[in-house]
Amino acid sequence: MGSMSNFDQQQGSIPNSSSFDRLLDLRSSLSSVKRVPSASNLRSRSSSMGSENGTPKKSDPKIVRAAAGYVLEDVPHVTDYIKGLPTYPNPLQDNPAYSVVKQYFVNEDDTVACQIVVHKASPRGTHFRRAGPRQKVYFESDEVHACIVTCGGLCPGLNTVIREIVCGLYHMYGVTRILGIEGGYKGFYARNTIPLTPKSVNDIHKRGGTVLSTSRGGHDTSKIVDSIQDRGINQVYIIGGDGTQKGASVIFEEIQRRGLKVAVAGIPKTIDNDIAVIDKSFGFDTAVEEAQRAINAAHVEAESVENGIGVVKLMGRYSGFIAMYATLASRDVDCCLIPESPFYLEGKGGLLEFVEKRLKESGHMVIVVAEGAGQELMAESIRTMHNEDASGNKLLLDVGLWLSQKIKEHLTKKQKVLNLKYIDPTYMIRAVPSNASDNVYSTLLAHSAIHGAMAGYTGFTVGPVNGRHAYIPFHRITETQNKVVITDRMWARLLSSTNQPSFLSQVDVEDAKKEEPPAQFLQGDDKKRCSEESVSNNCSKLSSSSSQKSTGQKSA
Ligand SMILES: Nc1ncnc2c1ncn2[C@@H]1O[C@H](COP(=O)(O)OP(=O)(O)OP(=O)(O)O)[C@@H](O)[C@H]1O
Ligand SMILES: O=P(O)(O)OC[C@H]1O[C@](O)(CO)[C@@H](O)[C@@H]1O
Ligand SMILES: [Mg+2]
C-alpha cells in the first residue's frame, strides 16, 4: 500500500511538486512571507489562470495518484491561484467545547474512499478529501464576510442549514459579518440582502421553506461575481440542487479567473435525492416520512369502499427515490411507478390488467407514482407542448391525473364498480420542517462547509460519502444524476414487497444493464481492466448505484 507522502501529481492545477506533503509545507512557508490584498482590492487583477478573452476557463480537475491504484480527486484551494497567503491557528483550539476532543482536527492527509466494497486485489480506488476542521485556517475571524444563498425548489432542512452556517461561523470561528442573499441567484444583483446573526436565525429550523426565499433561473455569472466583489464578500455558501451546484461551479471559475480570495462552498439540496456521489441529500428522509401520511390516507380511503383505488403522486422529476422508499416503508402500496422503470397500460402484463387482478384479490389497492414516471407514455396519448421552467427543467405532465383517468376509463368499459381517490401531496412533503435526523444531518453539512471554507478550500460541494463527510469537486456532483438502478437489489426488494409486475421486456432489462456500473470494477483479478483510470472514471456512476443502496439506511 502506498502512503500519502508518495503522491504523484499527474495533472491539474497543482503546481509542480513531487509530493503533496511538500505542497502543503510550501503553502505554510509562503504564508508567513506575504499578505495578499483584500478581495475588493483585487478587483481588476487578472489571474494567470484566466483565459485571455475573459471567458471563465474551466480549471482542470486536481487529481493525485499514489501506489496501489490510489486516486485523490481533490478540491481547489485558494492558494492554487493566490500565492503567499498567510495562515492562522484555528480559533477552535481555544474553544472550551472543542478543545477537549482528543483529535478534533482532521489530518491533512485524511481522505474518504469512494468505493468501500472491494476485493483482495482491488485497486484502492478514488478518494475525496475528508471534511472537517484544520489546524490552520486561511481567514482571520474579523476578515471574513460570508454570504448564504438558497436556490431551486424547497426542501425540508433549508432553514436548519442556514441557521447552522450562521451559528457555526459565529460560535466556532468568531465570524460576525454574515449576509443572507434574498431570492436565489438573482438576489445577488436584484434583491436585498439580510444581515444574519445567531439571534435572528435562532428559531428558523422549526419552520419549513427558506427564510432567504429562493428562485429558479436568473443565473448571471458576471453580475453575481461583481456583486460578491463589490460587497467584499469572501465566503459564499450556496445551498441548492444539481442546477445550483452547476451555477456555483461557474461562479467559482469566475472568482478564480479574477484572482479573488473568495471560498465558494456548495451544500447539496434536493428532496429527490438525485445528487450523485453523496450518500443522500438532506430533507429526503423527512419527505419519505411525510409521504407516509398521504399513502396511509389513500389506503384508508381505498379499503373502506368497494373496489377502492388510492393513487398518490409523489415528487421525483428524474429519480424515483421518494416513491421507492415511501413504498418500501409503508407496506400498503400495491404498485410503485418511477421514471427509471418504464411501464405500459394495455395488454398482457400491463398495468390495467394488474389493477383488475389486484382488485379481484384484495378488493382495493394503492398506487404510488413518481411525478416523472410514464412521461413518454403520456406524451404518446396527449398532444403536448415542450415546456421548461426558468432554470430549463422540463415541465412535467400530471401523471397522477392521467393515470387515474385511464384506470377509470378501463374499469368503466368493463362495467366494474370503482371508487378512485387521487391524492397529490407533492408540495406538502417538501414544505414541512425537517425531522430530527435531517436536522442533525443538516448541521453536519453546514459545519463541514464552514471548516472547508475557513481552511481555504473552494469550488467544492460537501456531503457524506459512505458515511464520512468529504469535500467533492463540483464537476463530480454535476456530471451525472443519482437514479434508482432497476437491476439493483433495492428495486428487487420493492418488486417483491408489492408483488407488482416489473413491466420490463427483455430489451428493457438489457438496456438497464448497460447503465449498470461495469462489472470489472469488482473483479480484482483483471488488473489491466481495473486500472486507476477506470476506477476514477467510474466513480460517480458507482457511487450513484451504491448510494441508492445505502440511502435511508445510513446516518450522516
Ligand atoms: N447549467 C447551469 N449553469 C449556471 N446556473 C445554473 C445552471 N443550471 C441551473 N442554474 C441555476 O441554478 C439555480 C437553481 O437551478 P434549478 O432551478 O434547476 O434547481 P436545482 O438547484 O437543480 O434544485 P431542485 O431541482 O432540486 O429544485 C437557478 O437559479 C438556475 O438559473
Ligand atoms: O414547482 P417547482 O418549484 O418548480 O418544483 C417542482 C420540482 O422540484 C423538485 O421537488 C426538485 O426540487 C422536483 O421533484 C419537482 O419536479
Ligand atoms: Mg434540479
TrEMBL record:
Q: Which UniProt keywords apply?
A: Allosteric enzyme, ATP-binding, Cytoplasm, Glycolysis, Kinase, Magnesium, Metal-binding, Nucleotide-binding, Transferase
Q: Which residues are named in the active-site annotation?
A: 272
Major localization class: cytoplasm
Domain Phosphofructokinase residues, every copy: 147-451
What cofactor is needed?
Answer: Mg(2+)
Q: In which pathway does it act?
A: Carbohydrate degradation; glycolysis; D-glyceraldehyde 3-phosphate and glycerone phosphate from D-glucose: step 3/4
Q: Where is this region: Disordered?
A: 1-20, 31-60, 509-556
Q: Which residues bind Mg(2+)?
A: 242
According to its UniProt record, where is this protein located? Cytoplasm
Composition-biased stretches, type Polar residues, lie in 1-16
* Role description: Catalyzes the phosphorylation of D-fructose 6-phosphate to fructose 1,6-bisphosphate by ATP, the first committing step of glycolysis.
According to the record's subunit comment, the protein's assembly and interactions are:
Homotetramer.
What this protein is called in its record is: ATP-dependent 6-phosphofructokinase
